[in-house]
């Protein structure tokens, strides 16, 4: 009761102070509106996080209603604690780069840091309104927050590519995960030295999208969703001792009836602290008729005994120094 009263008091203070709205009392609240330092809804859908020089940068689809309708935008936010996010501007505001026509698509942007070339390299899924172009696009910048300059589009490994994901291994190697419908599966492909191309690492014969990956205590975990458009479905995971496999069968992350709590995977973010390692399941709760108001579903995963479990949503917080995640008592 005291906690609830305290929560109410805090909410009132935050309501009166638009600059603090994004703080949401220092908690991550899956499925609720999440605001930046200006009090605007965070626009980082289908996104990913890049850690650079002590700062987390969150990139994603900017679906703002007042965007120029002829362009597709990627927004960038920065944070030191993963809970309070500062808007850094549009990293990319791209006019149709390949004569794709009306309704063209830029989805699931991810930013890689190339320490050799000292460039920041943005990958995204690029497509026409019918999803038949099926390529990745590449844009580069000298600064992490952009602006990014369009370089090219291509089909990785010569294959159709739709949803993409990002994985950085513990040795710093960078991988693109991409779904390829005609193959009935998805690829894990290592980026070449300049990050302008990929080479095959592994093909997983499972028709999954929203691919994401993490390595914990020597085991690789890959997650993905089934292909049901914007509709949620039970997301699944498999494990392997090496990126090249062998991979286990896929298992549900949460009870099937929960349909992943209405969310679809976009990234697994590992936070290694002084006391604990937390893996955050980052996902989107899509609102296809109001994509700008699609919600974020972030929860710490339970990992152990070779398995991975996504708990039901509740407010929680993370200490990025210790790596500890604290789930709140049910406070609403
Ligand atoms: C599911 C994908 O994961 C999303 O990124 C988006 O492409 C929708 N399909 C479109 O239906």
In words, what does this structure look like?
The protein is mainly β. It has one domain: Tachylectin-2, Chain A (5 Propeller). Helix content is 5%, strand content 46%. The protein has one helix and 23 strands. The strands form seven sheets. A four-stranded antiparallel sheet has the order 1-2-3-4, with no helix packed on it. Strand 3 (71-79) and strand 4 (86-95) form a beta hairpin. The structure holds (2R,3S,4R,5S)-2-(hydroxymethyl)piperidine-3,4,5-triol. (2R,3S,4R,5S)-2-(hydroxymethyl)piperidine-3,4,5-triol binds at residues 46, 107-108, 163, 209-210, 229-230, 264. Residues 46, 107-108, 163, 209-210, 229-230, 264 line the site of (2R,3S,4R,5S)-2-(hydroxymethyl)piperidine-3,4,5-triol.
In CATH terms, what is the fold-level topology?
Answer: Tachylectin-2, Chain A
Structure ligands: (2R,3S,4R,5S)-2-(hydroxymethyl)piperidine-3,4,5-triol
Task: Please bin the fraction of helical residues.
Answer: under 10%
Report the C-alpha radius of gyration, rounded.
Answer: 19 Å
Overall form: globular
What count of helical segments does DSSP give?
1
Mean pLDDT: 93
Q: Oligomeric form of this entry?
A: single chain
Low-pLDDT parts are 1-23
Any idea of the CATH class?
Answer: Mainly Beta
The largest beta-sheet arranges its strands as 1-2-3-4
Number of individual domains: 1
The SS-based structural class is mainly beta
Give the DSSP E fraction (strand runs of 2 or more residues): over 45%
Count of DSSP E strands?
23
Q: Which architecture does the CATH hierarchy give at level 2?
A: 5 Propeller
CATH homologous superfamily grouping: Glycosyl hydrolase domain, family 43
Summarize the biggest pleated sheet. Answer: 4 strands, antiparallel
N/C terminus separation: 11 Å
Q: In sequence order, what are the helices and strands, one letter per element?
A: HEEEEEEEEEEEEEEEEEEEEEEE
């Amino acid at each position: 009761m005291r906690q609830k009263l305290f929560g109410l008091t805090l909410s009132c203070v935050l309501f009166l102070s638009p600059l603090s709205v994004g703080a949401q009392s220092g908690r991550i609240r899956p499925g609720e509106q999440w605001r930046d330092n200006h009090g605007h809804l965070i626009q980082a859908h289908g996104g990913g996080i890049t850690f650079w020089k002590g700062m987390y940068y969150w990139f994603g689809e900017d679906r703002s209603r007042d965007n120029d309708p002829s362009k597709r935008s990627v927004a960038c936010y920065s944070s030191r604690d993963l809970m309070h996010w500062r808007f850094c501007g549009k990293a990319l505001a791209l006019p149709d780069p390949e004569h794709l026509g009306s309704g063209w698509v830029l989805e699931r942007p991810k930013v890689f840091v190339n320490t050799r070339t000292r460039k920041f390299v943005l990958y995204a899924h690029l497509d026409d309104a019918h999803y038949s172009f099926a390529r990745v696009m590449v844009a580069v910048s000298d600064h992490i927050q952009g602006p990014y300059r369009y370089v090219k589009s291509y089909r990785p490994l010569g294959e159709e590519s739709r949803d993409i994901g990002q994985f950085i291994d513990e040795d710093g190697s960078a991988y693109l995960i991409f779904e390829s419908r005609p193959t009935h599966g998805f690829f894990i492909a290592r980026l070449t030295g300049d990050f302008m191309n990929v080479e095959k690492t592994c093909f997983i014969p499972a028709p999954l999208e929203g691919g994401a990956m993490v390595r914990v205590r020597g085991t690789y975990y890959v997650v993905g969703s089934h292909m049901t458009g914007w509709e949620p479905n039970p997301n699944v995971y498999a494990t392997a001792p090496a990126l090249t496999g062998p991979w286990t069968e896929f298992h549900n992350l949460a009870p099937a009836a929960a349909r992943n709590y209405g969310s679809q995977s976009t990234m697994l973010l590992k936070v290694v602290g002084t006391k604990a390692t937390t893996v955050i399941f980052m996902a989107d709760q899509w609102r296809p008729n109001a994509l700008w108001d699609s919600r974020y579903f972030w929860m710490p995963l339970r990992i152990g005994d070779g398995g991975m479990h996504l708990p039901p949503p509740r407010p929680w917080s993370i200490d990025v120094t210790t790596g500890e995640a604290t789930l709140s008592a049910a406070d609403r």
